[in-house]
Design brief:
The structure is a homohexamer of 250-residue chains.
Chain A: H1 3-9, E1 14-19, H2 24-33, E2 37-41, H3 49-59, E3 65-69, H4 75-83, E4 88-91, H5 97-107, H6 120-126, H7 130-137, E5 139-144, H8 147-151, H9 153-157, E6 164-167, H10 169-175, H11 187-203, E7 206-211, H12 214-222, E8 227-230, H13 233-249
Parallel strand pairs in A: 1-2, 1-8, 2-3, 3-4, 4-5, 5-6, 6-7, 7-8
Helix pairs in contact in A: 2-3, 4-5
The complex binds magnesium ion (6 copies).
Residues 92, 145, 168, 171 of chain E line the site of one magnesium ion.
Chain lengths: 250, 250, 250, 250, 250, 250
């Protein structure tokens, strides 16, 4: 069972916690809040593969799907987190249907893919039928974050084994020629995101997005996104600390 | 130079960041916010002595006094953080003037104390005159957090080498027979804190306090506290994450 | 709730896994086997306090009481593991009723003891009522492992707050003038252990023992022990590896 | 000198210990048992590159060839473990002669390959003539674990610089359309392994295999394998722990 | 601002410290000596990506440009150190203009490259205008260390976004058919280095070199190199320790 | 066997390497130089107990006695390093014969002391007869570094189980009222050291000393010291790096 799949199946919206910090206590604190899933960020976050495993182990006692944003669409990197019991992959820079097919190849056992077998923690977390069930349990989300990806959106979404897409607004902004912003206000960027969610849903895949505020997340949920993240644990900490210091200084 | 000493000398209030997380990124995030000092909590926080050193190294580039709350009034533990360039000790459970004298003995080189010499990072951080200046630079704050400590408050405060006291409201509440609360409302606890700050100031030492909210901190600043902490980096993160999830679910 | 307490209350025997290895994967492997409790050994094992926390976090998803054998009857060391969600303390070298009283003082909040408050992971693991429930939930086992302890056995067992004793056969053998052995066969040592379990049960506390083999554990269960450990995860690994190599070489 | 090469030269069988755990104590325990070689598994095991170095350092005092199964046939990953004094590479998913040639290119200095120079620990472990001797000392084993690899077996084995092959039965089973099993019983899988060892030996390279039991290893030794592994340190620990708990519960 | 750029702009020579050790104390010790830049070696050094970040954090308080020699010309590896506030990349094995263009693509945000956005520590270290300034601040040095690279030297140097080259004498020696030497004396190797510096300067890029002694560095500075490294922190330690032991034994 | 004991028995001088750095590569580099013993400094050095074990494991392959300077004369701290295979204790601040007796009690199994049994790595390193041989193999050196210690020198040296003393010149200087200096020139300090070595030898124990230069070490060897250390690995690195940068700048 995968809570994210279940929420999607019922038409609901997944609220995802984002784990940038490499601390197991930070991870347990995040999971305790009640996110439907928690995603360890191995691209721009601070954990490495060894500490990521400990984060997965820590959040294992919560009713929260363990996911990872990998650093690259690379078989060794994707295999590593899946071995460690990760149930969902968010893969950056999926710009072509070939990239999407590569993601599926990297994340599924034969015959659907070429993932190598040896999931020691996968077996502990998933149980004895892990090998038989993994291909249908684990989720693949392709990040749409370049102009090129937008031009290939339909073929990416229709790639067999892709469950959803995830919008990276900062990289998308840069790719479209604008500076990144936590909450995009540039019309071209906002328009692109609107186009992505509409077309993803038309293709029958779930759309997710990384948000710089709660308001942004709620706006995009209103437009059809079913998987939202509000910045990261690290940014939450810094934001609250800054609010507190500012208030103390007033 | 020690920023905390300078602020106190000018009659100001030190806003202290509290580092519970063992992550160097969390520490850098906290220091970047602009706290006057940052205190690594080796008692109830998550760092150990080795990672504490890395936290001190990380915050070394900010204009922020590096401090530690040690786990115990123990010569090896106090020597360790001082060796690593810590410029202020917050020592738990100082209940008697003997405890206070022990803290001074543990934190000062001869002839004022019996701290052992070998401050490798102290020399890198403090400079070549570290040995000559350490005893006057480093701050000692004694935690007042039991009924016994209150009954010895004056002799603790007047112990030579004690610069300030730090109130631990949760332990104080327990010692007085009440459940701990982030923001104490119990009249006996609140009354005790009022008594502490008044008497500490009468003795000529600075009073500090651990607070469960900005409002609590501002209230106590109004009553004479010159060193305030608003919970921890960890609690800041969890608080903000919970606020965000709650808002998403509304 | 504490599974160990519940088993004892029903008159059953706790099968305890012993975590010497500092690896979170080793801990998850051990917990997955189904031990009623798992004890992180901070005295002769390989974890330190920071990695011990990660072991507690890892085994948190199993129905298995998290326990620790601390390195010493020291308030800072006992506070540390309790803060991290440990629900049972096995304390070495409890040789006198004063030692036993010190253990209780170190492990219980006021008014029963002097444990300092700040259980961040305790709250995540134990829930919001942790402060109110900790004193009755957490277990204290005093190690009886010297001739002196035997001479004080009754007063140790009757110390308020002591829930059980744990026999350390190797140190007991050394103290009685014999070489340590995983499975003691020396008559004086065996006789001493028989005396300990009989008198502990007479005092109304549970008896536990560290065993060098399954057979030894079953023998002692037959004589009234209700808490048994069969060596360690590390010894299990080495034993099996040696069996395998020997069989390959035959 | 490389003990594995020497055993092979004398027609003997190498008994290889498999290090999945990231713990240096686990590694020292394994090496102490007397394996001819110990292989750090960087593909499905738990160490990362930094901890792998510490495992190599730890086993350095034993008469045991240090080897690594790398995560991927990648120049940076292979260079890393060789720099750290590893004397044998087991490379996964060598499916074509091009893959085999890439492995050789990645593991040998010019002119035989393109390995980059900078073996700090290699020099400490191997001595001052490390640069001159490394290409002839270090072993390359290509993993044969797909249908494609079987179809290219001869050209892989005859690739200059390949010393042996290593069968991965689980991935081979998956590739052939069957579920993985620690001890394969599926006739197609068993038949494939028989074919591999026969043809490898015909090509003049050593054959190795990963086994799920001692019996399996002995069977395959009987059919010509000269390098056998019996599961992992982690599986040894869990297996023994489970045996013990089961026996306690009987 | 980037101290290395500024020194180059003034026609000066950068003295670079090389961090092989994974220890934050070693890094702080090195930075304290006064190097203009310190380079974390992720190819042949001992840090991994997580510890590299802590090294960058540690040296952040010194007036010293943080640089990295990455393990490979790989987008994920280059992105990682840049995210962590690294201001200069030394990239091994740049053998063709395509390799050089790939380095630029990996290290610059669009539109100059394809670096993905998410520089959490970059923002803390570089400030709020990091995104706007990074492409012009960060330095790219291509390692020239093969015969092939020499044959493509001009096109590599003229690749847009390449600021300098860095000679790896050991790999260059191996590629030219000679054994590596800390201080090359082989005429072909020395001649090749002379050719490289001359042609690099003709192309308008800075030349740097890794040296086995102070004398070697001074010689090459005399021939136009503007960026020199004298072995590593690790070699410095071993060299001095050996000098001391030898002197004791005399 | 203990190389240090053997050298002393033959009237020779032990040249001891001092490991301040927490890096296993630094430790292997130091041990490779050929010191008779290497001492992990857990008082003023950078390793903690867990990393100290890895340093002991790393140097285990060299003919070099593993020693530790513990942070305090504390049973848990001394037991920890001995469990990990350390063969010599240097204990700070032994000021009285009671301190000396405590050191012996902490470091020897019954009946000579009260060390608790459980030396997992001791058994791997020392062999099956470890328990029987440890008390006679392991060395105890008491640090003489205060005026009080000097006044008790004879009773300290004659304490049963004390094998030698180790002079800490910096703390001794502070205790005598002078600033610490790597190479003491103050007449009172120098005179005190001369007195210590003379009286220690009269009592029949070996004298050791921490030195700030090779010259200082040779001078003191000439006056009877049989165990000398020349600063630390960390200071060696910084010293050499500074020499190199200075030479580059000339
Ligand atoms: Mg992105
Ligand atoms: Mg408190
Ligand atoms: Mg014991
Ligand atoms: Mg495989
Ligand atoms: Mg090179
Ligand atoms: Mg000293």
């Amino acid at each position: 069972p995968n809570k994210v799949r279940e929420i999607w199946a019922s038409g609901g919206v997944v609220k995802n916690g984002w784990l940038a910090l490499e601390s197991t206590m930070a991870a347990e604190g995040m999971a305790s809040v009640g996110w439907d899933s928690c995603t360890v960020d191995l691209q721009h976050g601070f954990a490495d593969e060894l500490s990521a495993r400990q984060l997965f182990q820590t959040i294992g006692r919560f009713d929260c799907t363990p996911m990872a944003r990998v650093a690259w669409n690379d078989p060794a990197k994707i295999m590593r987190v899946l071995d460690d019991g990760c149930y969902g992959i968010i893969c950056p820079m999926v710009n072509t249907p070939e990239d999407a097919a590569m993601l599926v190849k990297n994340s599924k056992f034969p015959p659907q893919g070429e993932r190598s077998y040896g999931p020691q923690r996968g077996l502990l977390y998933g149980g004895a039928d892990y090998a038989a069930k993994a291909n249908e349990t684990i989720i693949n989300m392709a990040m749409i974050e370049t102009r090129e990806a937008m031009s290939n959106l339909e073929t990416i979404c229709k790639t067999d084994g892709i469950d959803g897409i995830y919008v990276g607004p900062s990289d998308l902004a840069l790719s479209l020629g604008h500076l990144p912003a936590g909450v995009p206000t540039n019309a071209e960027v906002v328009g692109a995101i609107e186009e992505i969610v509409r077309r993803a849903r038309d293709c029958g895949v779930v759309a997710g997005i990384h948000c710089g505020s709660v308001e942004m997340a709620k706006d995009w949920i209103g437009k059809g996104f079913q998987f939202v993240t509000v910045y990261t644990d690290f940014v939450a900490m810094v934001t609250k600390a800054r609010e507190n210091l500012t208030a103390l200084n007033e």
